[in-house]
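Help needed: design a sequence for this.
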């Protein structure tokens, strides 16, 4: 298959009128070509490391049908690879969700994005920073419980959000490092010094920066300045304008640069499904005008989709095509060690999204197969 007369965004340059050829699910050739450009742009498919749900379904539903709905919903908006994300819940509920994702095929057979693994968000977090996580299920690290989850996930547990300052935090991080699980600090009451210590012990990511952590004070900095200035750390950001103000997102991007910024959605069941009532972790969530909240007004995930995140970041941070590719795909891939995706180069998996100049998705390809077309 060949995509011709398209703008191609590679890590090295932007080819304004090019050809991209795919064979056996891989990119086999990229070149400049003569002719009239189509006005379409090919980007690496969006990679979302933090998705709870979409299309009315949730990872915690723990059914193949729910997972397929999530994958189809997000593929419609350009996502080609995702981590299905759990929420703080009972042992049984989390175990069921992990086992369900573990059974999912690595390549989509549902016309949707590929489920590349699991992001375990909680339950080993700070009870003072639960956000929308059900506080009644927040708990300290349990070695036997975590071992059970590693077994249930069958090697697909790729990332964890934890609060390192909680009892057992160091032992949990050691267990994650041994298992090859990316440690992301979030829902945390940590000080700056505690955050530095956790990074020294292997933490390499911040979960939805600014949300569910202490804010910045000029004499009590908390974790945020540490995340923003340590070159070993990448930061997740929910770029919906509700969780973090556009001006603060622009400030963050200026501080960390394109290399350390990871766009995520933190999407819940209402994403792609409109306003209404939904469930998240057993809580009732109301979505009104694109804002998802609990009854007390607490933000409860988002209804953001990755194409809108890309549009927002381009507008708020003045991103070019290559920077868009980096924050929506390349950095996430590199964070997970997926060096054969997240970039358009010869030999890479043909996970890609075709957009127009307004970043409206025209088609999504996963492993060279078209899983969504606007035509």
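Sure. Designed sequence:
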């Amino acid at each position: 298959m060949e995509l011709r007369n398209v703008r191609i965004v590679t890590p090295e340059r932007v080819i304004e009128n090019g050809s991209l050829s795919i064979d056996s699910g891989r990119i086999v050739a990229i070149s400049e070509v003569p002719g009239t450009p189509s006005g379409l742009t090919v980007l690496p498919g969006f990679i979302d490391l933090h998705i709870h749900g979409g299309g009315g379904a949730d990872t915690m539903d723990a059914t193949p049908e729910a997972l397929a709905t999530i994958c189809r919903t997000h593929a419609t908006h350009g996502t080609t690879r995702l981590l299905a994300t759990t929420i703080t819940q009972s042992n049984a509920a989390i175990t069921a969700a992990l086992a369900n994702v573990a059974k999912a095929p690595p390549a989509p057979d549902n016309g949707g994005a590929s489920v590349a693994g699991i992001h375990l968000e909680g339950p080993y977090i700070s009870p003072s920073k639960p956000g929308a996580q059900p506080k009644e299920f927040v708990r300290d690290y349990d070695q036997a419980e975590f071992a059970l989850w590693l077994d249930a996930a069958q090697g697909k547990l790729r990332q964890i959000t934890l609060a390192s300052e909680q009892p057992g935090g160091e032992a949990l991080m050691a267990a994650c490092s041994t298992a090859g699980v990316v440690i992301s600090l979030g829902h945390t009451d940590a000080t700056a010094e505690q955050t530095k210590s956790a990074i020294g012990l292997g933490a390499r990511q911040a979960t939805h920066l600014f949300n569910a952590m202490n804010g910045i004070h000029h004499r009590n900095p908390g974790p945020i300045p540490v995340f923003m200035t340590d070159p070993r750390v990448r930061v997740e950001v929910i770029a919906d304008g509700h969780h973090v103000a556009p001006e603060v997102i622009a400030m963050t991007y200026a501080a960390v640069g394109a290399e350390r910024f990871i766009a995520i959605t933190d999407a819940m069941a209402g994403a792609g499904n409109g306003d209404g009532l939904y469930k998240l972790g057993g809580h009732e969530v109301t979505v009104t005008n694109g804002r998802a909240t609990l009854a007390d007004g607490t933000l409860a995930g988002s209804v953001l989709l990755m194409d809108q995140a890309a549009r927002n970041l381009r507008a708020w941070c003045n991103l070019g095509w290559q920077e868009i590719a980096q924050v929506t795909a390349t950095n996430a891939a590199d964070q997970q060690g997926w060096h054969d995706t997240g970039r358009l180069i010869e030999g890479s998996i043909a996970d890609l999204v075709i957009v127009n100049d307004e970043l409206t998705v025209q088609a999504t390809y996963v492993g060279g197969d078209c899983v969504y077309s606007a035509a």
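The mean pLDDT is 96.
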